[in-house]
Amino acid sequence: MFSSKGASYEIDSVDVFITPVYLEIPVSLALNIGTDAFGVTLIAGTYFSCGVGGNKIESHGAARDILFGSSESKDLRALDLGLKFGAGIAVKGFLISARYGLGLTNLYPVESVDIEMKNRLLEVSLTSSFSGR
Hints:
14% of the residues are buried. The chain has strands at residues 2-4, 7-11, 14-34, 38-58, 64-65, 79-91, 94-103, 120-128. By secondary structure, it is mainly beta.
C-alpha cells in the first residue's frame, strides 16, 4: 500500500508541517463473525513501511522534499514498524473497516537527542471480496 501521513510540530519557534509518503506492507489476521450476508470482522496485525517521498514545509518557507536517513541533516528515519488493530462490518461481499496504527519506531533521525517521533494513524477502508460462489 502507498500511504501518506502528516504531522505538524514546532522546533525552536519554527512551525513545521510534514507529509511523508510510505510504501507499506501490512500483515494482518482477521476474525469474521457472522454469515456471508452480514458479519463483524476483528482485525489485528503488524505493518512494515519504508519512506519513499513526501514534503516538509517550515514557517513561511517553500515545500521541499523530505530527506530520509539517520543524521542531523535528515528529516526522518526511513523505516517504520508498528501494530494495527481494528474492526469492520461485512455486508454482502463488502467490508467497511477502521484500523488504528501504533508506530513502534522512533523516526527522529538522531539517536543521541531525547526527542521521540512515532507514527499514529487512523485508517478507514472499503474492501470488496470476490468469491467463486
